[in-house]
Amino acid sequence: MDLIFLALSLYKKRQFEECVKTCTELLDKNPFDQAVWVLKMKALTEQLYVDDLEAEEEGIAEAFMDNETIAESARPGTSLKNPGTSQGGSTQGYRPWTQTGRPVSGVVRPGTQTARPGTMEQALRTPRTSKTARPSTSQSARTIRLGTASMLSEPGGPFIQLSRINLGNYAAKPSLAKPLFLYILYHENSIRHALQLAVLATQACEFKDWWWKVQLGKCYYSLGLMREAEQQFRSALRQHQCIETFLRLGRVYIRLDQPLSALDVCRTGLEYFPKEITLLTEIARIFEGLNNMTMSVKYYREIVTEDSTNVEAIACIGMHHFYTDQPEMALRFYRRLLQMGLYNAELFNNLGLCCFYAQQYDMTLSCFQHALSLAKEDDVADIWYNIGLIAIGVGDTRLAGQCLRLAISADSSHAPAYNNLGVLELRRGRVNEARAFFQAAASLAPYLFEPYFNHAALSNKLGDLQASYIVIQKSLEAYPSHIPSQELLHALEKHFTFI
């Protein structure tokens, strides 16, 4: 069999490792075969290709090095960084929020992760590689005119020497330039070289190829140049309407904290691509980030109407019903996910909670047993915490205490478990232990209002009014519309005024 035909067949079958080996054999015989060279580039790219639209996560570098500040205090419903200002949205009282200030979502996706890089060095580390901890702009390259000799690769070394390649020679050849750009961007992860090639290729095609403009926008977006990325994406949309371009332009506005502009872009995309699932999903996510759950669930229902197997939409609708005191409805959606083949600890944990609040007690413990058997190291603490909540609900405080301590042993920074342990210790009359648990929960999770309120109520009961007054103000900072905290604050202010 001809080796070139075999390599093409392996590539189509997505057997990329075998394809690379076959191409390497061919290149050993003829190092200047451009067709095999391109095929090997594409195979290597596919091995490491990720959907960067669904894999991006704003790290500490983007958070601390953001110069695109629009307004210090945004108007209600116009900022993703302060979603608590949304009018008519859910409150922290019945739907918990993450550390980033966003309501808990039905699925884990970009923007909903609470974990962030611990140090600035980790945030600046080049993604998907451990070769260097420097940002991409600090890399240097030699400008050497090499021509076709750049196609030669050293045995045991890199396939393409980026520091030796003359990008100008390839920019004028679209059949070579596009695979080379994707290889540099996804395999070598060199934004600087990819941007240089995209600029040269855009000039070579006289700014008439919309694809290169989209790639320029991707590079600018990766480098944090949002306004330049916006300009490139809008220029590409004027030449050709593409779903990816609409999504990337919307992500630019999200990074600029302009969710209303992102919504306008996605709705414009729906005019060209009606009922497009990805655009509807993006709109639903933005509304969820704005804490407008009514509109978010509306678009998720449209998604389910078009695609009845969309896991994200089903999970988010189920969570919305659970936190609006409709556990029976939520149970229907989670059972649908189970019927679709999802079998993980998170799903059984949610099924157990829905069964408990729907008073189907015979299924509750079996669901949590399945959850514990499938749980990973990061999920064990949450599952034991939820079992502790169920034990509190049935009145078994001893079992509840054991479950909460197991949650803390699995995750020593689980703040809700510390808070609930404080409540149990207070019921037993152990005031000092309860206060210690409340203080530990507040120090671990300053965004939670429950530890502050419990600590303030305990201090008020013990007669320590000054400490109660200080702590209750922190509770209102975390959750300004909490009525019991407001009432306790007014009572303390009246007492001080009377004195």
Automatic annotation (TrEMBL):
Leader peptide range in chain numbering: none
Sequence ranges of the TPR repeats: 345-378, 415-448
KW Cell membrane (keyword) present: no
Keyword annotations of the record: TPR repeat
Official protein name in the record: Tetratricopeptide repeat protein 8
An individual GO BP term: non-motile cilium assembly
UniProt entry tagged with the keyword Chloroplast: no
Assigned GO CC terms: BBSome; ciliary basal body; non-motile cilium
Region feature (Disordered): 73-141
Polar residues: bias regions: 92-102, 127-141
Species annotation: Thrips palmi (Melon thrips)
Superkingdom per UniProt: Eukaryota
